[in-house]
Design brief:
Blueprint: E1 4-10, E2 13-21, E3 26-28, E4 31-32, H1 33-36, H2 40-53, E5 59-66, H3 70-88, H4 93-99
Parallel strand pairs: 3-5
Antiparallel strand pairs: 1-2, 2-5, 3-4
Length: 128
């Protein structure tokens, strides 16, 4: 099997994933998964598509993460891994889609408007 690449995005985070056959090692920006995401919850989020299909120890994953915060990065990585797994085996698409791992969460921060302190907040109005 050759190296399969996929991309995932969430908020302003971008994850580029390179998936190849191996022993289940996940490397993010040249660091181990546990070193890059110390939180067990974020590690769980990243591994969700692999656990769902039961292929945790079969693939090595190299990922480049850029932009955003740790939550957005972990969810972008989850999407990228799910997309790569579909490229490996198209029959897995239904299970991944049912769990929502193939849906790009398009919610981003609303822009700040001029003359206001934030996107929706207004300065206090004074009549007199």
């Amino acid at each position: 099997m050759e190296v399969i690449n996929a991309i995932g995005r969430r908020k302003s985070a971008v994850a580029r994933v390179y998936l190849s056959e191996g022993t289940g090692k996940i490397t993010i920006n040249k660091k181990d998964l546990t070193e890059f995401f110390p939180s067990a919850i974020l590690q769980y989020v990243v591994k969700q598509p692999l656990q769902l299909l039961g292929v945790e120890g079969q693939y090595d994953i190299k990922a480049n993460l850029d932009g955003g915060g740790f939550t957005g990065q972990s969810q972008a990585l989850r999407l990228a891994i799910a997309r790569a797994l579909v490229k490996v085996n198209a029959e897995d698409k239904k299970a991944l889609k049912h769990q929502g791992f193939l849906t790009r969460d398009s919610r981003t921060v609303e822009r700040k408007k001029p003359g206001q302190p934030k996107a929706r907040a207004h300065f206090q109005f004074s009549k007199r």
